[in-house]
Every structure is written in structure tokens, then in C-alpha cells.
Specification:
- By secondary structure, the protein is α/β, with parallel strands linked by helices.
- It folds into 3 domains: 2-31 and 177-273, NAD(P)-binding Rossmann-like Domain (Rossmann fold); 37-172, no CATH class; 306-492, no CATH class.
- Helices cover 50% and strands 12% of the residues.
- It contains 16 helices and 12 strands.
- The protein has helices at 2-17, 34-67, 82-97, 109-134, 142-172, 187-198, 233-240, 254-266, 306-325, 327-340, 388-395, 403-409, 422-431, 448-451, 460-472, 476-492; strands at residues 178-183, 204-211, 220-221, 224-229, 244-247, 270-273, 285-290, 293-298, 346-352, 358-364, 413-415, 444-446.
- Strands 3-4-2-1-5-6 form a 6-stranded mixed sheet, with helices on both faces. A two-stranded antiparallel ribbon has the order 7-8. Strands 9-10 form a two-stranded antiparallel ribbon.
- The longest helix has 34 residues, at 34-67.
- It is globular and about 80 Å long.
Length: 499
């Protein structure tokens, strides 16, 4: 490690003196355009102003509604000013402490809604307690508190969603973006670059790549310049005004990774590391001890004990309700399938579920009867094997609705890793580490990978990563979030790779 650091120091000194190495990117950190940082500050300031306006407007609207009710006797609004004043102060303090104003990257509107609900309720309880202790003579109407808080949740969620869309649109056009350096020109580095290019609203402007080898092998990768090697990192960060470094070297040793991170830390930049997802899982880590010796405790599987019962209860209730409410629609779909093409209504296929046990999965048939005469295969865009109705069924995932029966009888869960056919499981278990860990939980109709667009003929490695993350980070809130996102995608037909 000492030799590695010595080489880095020497190369850094040399690189700092070579001012002509990158003539087309001659940008010093001190010359970083002020407009970019100013835009980021204005985004935060605008969000703060919207939260303040939403809170005061919500309590005034709540007061107006109560005042218009002849059965409610309430004084003038100015008599109640301590309540919205304390409430908004507490709420803004909570938002700042919980990083609700650090929205540089796109966040799920659903996630933000849950946080807004929780923090508003928490702020309301604290505010009432403060007023009860600090102003014992202050009289407030309970309906006024509840109505103001409820309206504020709705108004604040709406305004923040609008603000987010405006901010992301601005970032997609280069306003308030961050200069990013991607370390690694291999498959992972290119995958990271592709994700950045596909999501302009992230606000990332990639300045270039760093080659992990000793010498630069290529001048450009995916049209982006390769600026140097690992030893050039400090000088490149300084010269190009880099704000964030993304390390895409999951195959690197821990020693090399620590060395790279230490170089980036010297330059005060944000650091993100793409891990080896089969060795470094995003698990909850606790610190314990063994006779005074500190140990890290990695959580294994989140679904244990009473949580399994809770999840099964949710599956039973929701699947039964869905089958009853959707029965007319399911009958109509079955009739259309029968009229559309010759063959059975349902397609029953063997899949692998919990503990790799096979079960019969039910779907509406969306393919011709001879679809697999040449053997099993993934569906593709404009797949010629589909029936006329099959395209629509698969687009909106209608073909998967009969799997509610699988959930009801206990073969599947509403949320979980999607089950695969035995022939594919046998292939994947040979080539993908930890693939069989997906089978520690029941298969699901939908899952974390699916709502993130990983379905159909997409990367199995990526899908496995998402499935393992779900298994190790399960919570009831996560299941509800996935279900809500699934319903939204079904209704609007926004499922990516659904063909």
C-alpha cells in the first residue's frame, strides 16, 4: 500500500505541473461557473419558499372551511397565529434535519409523500405539545389542527412534485448540473455511463473516464474522452472542477479501492462506488462485540418470524379482494382470449418458487399454441409468436392477473422475485453467484426489479441484484410501495420492456 501511495504522490505532482495535458478542458476548480452553484441554491430556496407558503395557505384554507360551517364557532384567524407559526418552524427544522432539501437527484414522489405524511404528523404532535407547555392559555380547535395538517400534506406534496419536475427539467438541460468523473472503462463503467445518459434529469455532466490500467488504452469510450489513469485522479479532479466521482471497479481489491477513495477524498468531492453486488450487499449493518472485540453484524434475511405471517396475511386479504372486485374484468379477458385465437384460455407453466420447489403458474394465454415448438425462449419486441390480443395483454400485464390465484393458494406472493422456468434456473445458477438466494422467499407477481424496468429480455445479473436487495431489505412499507408503483404502471401502460 505504501508503494501504491508513493506512486500516486509522484504522479500527482507531475500531473499538476503539466498544464497543457488537456487543452480542450482547461478548467480550474476556482473557475467553476458560478451559475451552476447559484442554480442549486435557488432550487433549495424555492423549495423552502413553497413549503412555507403551503403550510400557511393550508391552515388558512382549513380555517376558512371551518368558519363557513354554521355549526362551528371560531374566532378570527389572527387569534390562531401561534399554531401555524410553531408548526411551520418545527416542520422546516425536521425537513432540514432529514435532508428533505437535498434533492439533487430524482426521488420517488411516492417515497416523498410517505415522508411528508410522517413528518407533518410528527410536527403537529410536537407543536401541540410546545403550545400546551409554553402557552397554557392558548385555545385551539382540534378540527382546525387536523384539517390544516391534512390539507398541508396534500398541498405540500403537490407543490413539491411540481418543483421536482421543474428542477429535473432544468438539470436535464444543464442548469445546476454536477461535473462527474467515471473511474473504470470496462463493462460496469460503460453501464454507469449509459444510465447517466438515459437519465439526463439526474443532473450529471460526465467530463470523462479514468482508465483503471497503467496506460490509457483508448482515447474515447462511448464518445466520452478517457482523461487518464488512476494516478492522474487528483490532477484531473482539480483541473476539470469535478464535483462527484463514480467508481465502477467492482473487481478491484479492497486495497486498491481504498487507495482510489483516499485520492478522491483529498479533493473534497462526492464519491459513489458501484459494489460487487454478490459480495457487498446493501444490508443493514450493526456493531456488536465479542468479549469487548468489535464485530460487524450483517442482517441476513429480513423476512423472518412474525413478518412472514404479516406478509402472508397481506397476500391473502389483497388477493381475495382483488379476485372478487376484478372477477367481471377477468371473465371478459378470458372470453376475449378464447375468441381471439384457437387454444385454451389459460397458459399453465412450471416455475421455481420458494426453496426452488416447482409449482404451476397460471397466466392468460398470449402466445400461439406453437410458440415453443423450437424450444423455450425470451419474448422480444414485436414477437411474432404473440396473438393479436396478446400484445395488449402483455403491455398492461393483464396476462399475469390469474396469478392472484397462485397467491391465494400460497404458491406465490404479491411481491417477490419473479419466478423462472427450471431450464433457466439451472443455467443461471451455474453462471451467476448467489442466484439461488432469490429462492429464499416466495416468488411474486411483481417485484423490485420489475417496477424498475428490469423484466423481459433484460440483464439477469441486474435483476438478481435487485431481487437480493429486496430480500435483505424487506419491509411492509416497501411491499406497499412496490404494489402502488405496479398499479400505476399497469393503469398507464408504462411498463418498460413489457412485450
Amino acid at each position: 500500500m505504501a508503494n501504491f501511495e508513493a506512486k500516486i504522490e509522484k504522479a500527482m505532482q507531475q500531473s499538476l505541473t503539466e498544464t497543457s495535458s488537456y487543452p480542450e478542458y482547461r478548467i480550474r476548480r476556482g473557475h467553476r461557473p458560478v451559475l451552476m452553484k447559484r442554480a442549486q441554491f435557488l432550487f433549495v430556496l424555492a423549495l423552502l419558499a413553497l413549503d412555507l407558503a403551503a403550510t400557511w395557505a393550508s391552515f388558512y384554507i382549513g380555517y376558512t372551511i371551518l368558519d363557513a360551517n354554521p355549526d362551528v364557532v371560531i374566532g378570527p384567524f389572527w387569534e390562531f397565529w401561534p399554531l401555524p407559526t410553531v408548526f411551520v418552524t418545527v416542520l422546516i427544522a425536521i425537513f432540514f434535519s432529514q435532508r428533505m432539501y437535498q434533492r439533487r437527484r430524482p426521488v420517488s414522489h411516492l417515497d416523498e409523500f410517505f415522508r411528508i405524511v410522517f413528518y407533518n404528523i410528527f410536527a403537529m404532535l410536537i407543536s401541540v405539545a410546545i403550545l400546551a407547555l409554553g402557552l397554557p392559555d392558548f385555545v385551539y380547535h382540534r378540527p382546525f389542527v387536523l384539517l390544516g395538517t391534512g390539507i398541508n400534506i396534500f398541498v405540500m406534496t403537490l407543490l413539491r412534485a411540481i418543483h421536482a419536475q421543474v428542477q429535473w427539467l432544468a438539470q436535464a438541460r444543464g442548469v445546476g448540473d454536477d461535473r462527474v468523473l467515471v473511474i473504470g472503462t470496462g463493462e460496469v463503467g460503460q453501464m454507469l455511463m449509459q444510465k447517466i445518459l438515459q437519465n439526463r434529469k439526474l443532473g450529471y455532466h460526465v467530463m470523462g473516464f479514468i482508465d483503471s490500467g497503467k496506460n490509457v488504452r483508448r482515447q474515447k469510450v462511448m464518445g466520452v474522452p478517457v482523461l487518464g489513469t488512476l494516478v492522474d485522479i487528483p490532477a484531473i479532479i482539480e483541473r476539470f472542477g469535478i464535483d462527484e466521482v463514480v467508481i465502477g471497479l467492482p473487481e478491484s481489491s479492497h486495497q486498491d479501492l481504498v487507495g482510489i477513495i483516499s485520492l478522491c477524498e483529498r479533493e473534497k468531492v462526492g464519491i459513489r462506488v458501484f459494489p460487487d453486488v454478490f459480495q457487498i450487499m446493501a444490508s443493514e449493518v450493526g456493531i456488536g462485540d465479542l468479549g469487548g472485540l468489535p464485530l460487524l453484524t450483517m442482517r441476513d434475511v429480513a423476512l423472518q418470524g412474525w413478518k412472514l405471517t404479516l406478509k402472508r396475511g397481506l397476500d391473502l386479504v389483497l388477493s381475495a379482494i382483488a379476485l372478487v372486485l376484478m372477477s367481471p374484468f377477468l371473465l371478459l379477458a378470458a372470453l376475449l382470449v378464447k375468441l381471439d385465437s384457437p387454444g385454451p384460455i389459460f397458459y399453465i407453466q412450471e416455475r421455481m418458487g420458494l426453496d426452488a420447489r416447482p409449482f404451476k403458474m397460471i397466466k392468460f394465454r398470449s402466445m400461439r399454441m406453437d410458440a415453443e415448438n423450437d424450444g423455450p425462449g425470451w419474448t422480444t419486441p414485436d414477437d411474432p409468436r404473440r396473438t393479436k390480443l396478446g400484445s395488449l395483454l402483455r403491455r398492461f400485464n393483464i396476462d399475469e392477473l390469474p396469478q392472484l390465484i397462485n397467491v391465494l393458494i400460497g404458491d406465490m406472493s404479491l411481491v417477490g422475485p419473479r419466478p423462472e422456468r427450471p431450464v433457466y434456473v439451472e443455467q443461471f445458477r451455474q453462471s451467476i453467484p448467489r442466484y439461488m438466494d432469490r429462492h429464499r422467499e416466495k416468488a411474486g407477481i411483481t417485484g423490485w426489479a420489475q417496477v424498475n424496468g428490469l423484466r423481459g429480455d433484460t440483464s439477469i445479473i441486474e435483476r438478481t441484484k435487485y431481487d437480493l436487495w429486496y430480500i435483505e431489505n424487506w419491509s411492509l412499507a416497501l411491499d406497499l410501495k412496490i404494489l402502488i408503483r405496479t398499479v400505476v404502471q399497469w393503469v398507464f401502460g408504462t411498463n418498460r420492456n413489457a412485450y
